[in-house]
Design a protein that fits this description.
By secondary structure, this protein is of the alpha+beta class. Helix content is 25%, strand content 18%. The strands form two sheets. Strands 1-6-5 form a three-stranded mixed β-sheet. The mean pLDDT is 86.
Length: 134
């Protein structure tokens, strides 16, 4: 089970130490009785986004609402719910700057609820959000 981080930005290896991304999604897809495409079959790319301190990606399959924690170390995604995949995960080129900016925001007792970034969001927008967050 993945929980929201309380103090630091996390990726899949942080949230699940010692578990490879491929084995994590393959295990869950198998448990959900999904046929898993071969790892050499890449359907395309998906973009990572930061949600409450976790780097995640959304399943691109229409009608699937799955989101899954991802890894820049092993940037691949297969939807464990609907079985869509494999996809290459694209992280923003300024990932470190994004993380540094959102870490300026207040940390609540619930954790990093203000640590969010969406693809296409600029640093100027992030800075303005940080200022509004206090």
């Amino acid at each position: 089970m993945v929980t929201m981080p309380r103090e630091n930005i996390e990726e899949q290896p942080d949230a699940m130490p010692g578990v490879s991304m491929r084995s994590y999604v393959t295990q869950h897809a198998t448990r959900n009785r999904r046929d898993i495409p071969g790892e050499d079959h890449v359907e395309g790319q998906v973009e990572a986004r930061l949600y409450r301190g976790l780097w995640i990606t959304d399943c691109p399959e229409e009608g699937c609402a799955n989101a899954c924690v991802v890894s820049s170390v092993e940037p691949v995604y297969l939807c464990p719910d609907c079985g869509a995949g494999w996809f290459d995960v694209v992280f923003p080129s300024n990932k470190s700057a994004i993380e540094a900016e959102v870490m300026k925001r207040p940390i609540t007792r619930q954790g990093l609820i203000h640590a969010n970034w969406f693809p296409g969001e600029t640093m100027a927008q992030l800075e303005a959000e940080t200022e509004r967050a206090g």
